[in-house]
TrEMBL record:
It is an enzyme of class 1 (oxidoreductase). This is precorrin-2 dehydrogenase. Residues 219-315 form the Tetrapyrrole methylase domain. Pathway: Porphyrin-containing compound metabolism; siroheme biosynthesis; sirohydrochlorin from precorrin-2: step 1/1.
Amino acid sequence: MKAFPMFLATTGRRIVILGGGEQAAQKARLAIRTDAEIVVAGFEFDDELRALAEEGRLRLVDAHEIHADLFERAAITFVATGSAGADGALHALAKGLGAPVVNVVDRPALCDALTPSIVDRDPVVVAIGTEGTAPVLGRQIKTAVETMLEPRLGALAALAGRMRGAVGQRLAPRARRDFWVWVFSGPVRRAHSSGSERRAAQLLKARLEEGPGAAEGAIAYVGAGPGEADLMCLRGVRRMQEADLVVHGPDLPAGILELARRDAERRVAPDPVAVALEAARDGARVVLLAPGAGRELPQALSEAQGLDIEHVPGIG
């Protein structure tokens, strides 16, 4: 990667837009979704920008009033005049006056940060970047993601945020993780996405009142396939994202492990089946990665008692 993906904090900060035409208005439409103070500096202003200023959603200043204090609390400064010459001059001015992060529209070489394509389900936000190389591809990916995420998903995330403190107080870390997996992949999400937000909240709170049961160990025996991460089957990826422990032999390609949940333990073992069984009996959720398709379930797993054993063959 040539750019590190991250989200900029905007609370108590300012977003500065240099320019007053349509290109500046496009950036303003994006910026007003945040809680930042929006300041647009230019000589003449688009009607849309004037309307937003009248509504109190941003502030317009004359470009002659561009001084260093304009950038003191700036999370990011956009240069968006639509003129290559003016953009270059304003970029130099902003950097000279101390603007820490500057984005010049359609000029990747002058950008400290790149603006991604965004799927907005506030507070759930998905950002898709191509490092400025293929914005059309970025928009195509955005369209695909838009169809995957239901319109009400942000409201469900907000509900979860309001309940996060109560869940943290009542449940241990493993139980918390199991609880949120249940919320976002079970009846709560289904009820919420169908418009029954009250029912979703009732289900969530009722499950929390019940409290956790004993942790039940589980093993997913997942075929790693040819060893390429993009050839792992979808169910296998899901199990790796849910696992507490990923166990594998020494001959597994390292790229597959990038699919696992970041805080899951990874363990290389000469006898990975034995390690997986021991961990599962202690209540862990384990993915046992097998090289190749993994079409034959090991006998020790097929004979295991009291454990949830799932066989997820890979591509042969």
